Amino acid sequence: MKSLTNKSLWWFVGCTVVILLICTPLFYVLTKHYYAEEMVDVVESMQSGEDITPSDLEQDIMAGVMIQFGLIVVVLSVASVVTMRFVSKHLWTPFYDTMNKVEKFDLNKDEIPQFKSTDIQEFTTLNSALTELMCRNRNTFKSQKEFTQNASHELQTPLAVIQSKLDLLMQEDLGERQLNIVHDMYVAGNRMARLNRNLLLLAKMDNNQYHTDDDVDVSGLINENIATCENLYHRHNISCDMADHCLIRANCALTEIMINNLLVNALRNTPQDGRILINCSFQQFEIANTALGKALNTKHLFDRFNNSSDINRGNGIGLSIVKAVCNYHNWAIEYHYSDNLHHFVVRFNNNRDL
To answer: What does CATH list as the number for 214-347?
Structure first.
């Protein structure tokens, strides 16, 4: 096994030798026609004692030497170009193959890419390190997914028991102080149950447990969620501009969760006298709401348990679920701030006719 430097050097030497051998006839013709014949005449005249005939031998020698020097420079230049363009490309083929497979590597798949075998020491070491790193990352990722899913499943039963017991306790004849404590526990329990359901939802999406071939009426889902949210939040400042029967190909349950999370996020972060604007078409879904402050931090906006605003109104996972739903369907989600409005835009990717 050779190092990349040594192999490149041997390839360069080989190319130079081959090109010099190819150019040997040129050197022969150049030597013969420029000054070899006159030099032979001079030597023969000196050996026979005859007078040396005048000639331009000096000029021919200088011209021949310069032409040979130029030809040697051309040969070395061509050898360098061939080495850099063709030989280097051949030498770096395993590296390009490795980079291509690394870019396509997906942690959700169990398959570890098999890199092309090579006799170059640096690339062999790189492939071995990448294979080991991918295996560790895949195993860690798989363990985290299994832990999240198992923990969410196991927490469902005790959370349900706690909530039912708190329901019964709130019906007892309690004092005001005890009732407030039980109520706070009930609210915290509900929030924990929602968080558990959301984590379970993310785990299921990570495991590709949802199909995406439903014919989803986005406009109908929006109207249903608006009606529910208006009753829950007592807000009637939501205006819509939607295409009738806006059908897309997606998973119905996940699409409804995405719409509901975006709508609830807008309601929670809109001042009392603010407004919420919804626009929906076959190409995109957009929701905008009056801002309570400045633009949000787009760098960590869709991170889990991140609060991009100064007010903590949710459990910090709603927008990450929206992002996960969009990724699951290969949709693009964008955020921008303009005219004191937060804009969230989901661009659908529907290439199939409904």
So the answer is: 3.30.565.10
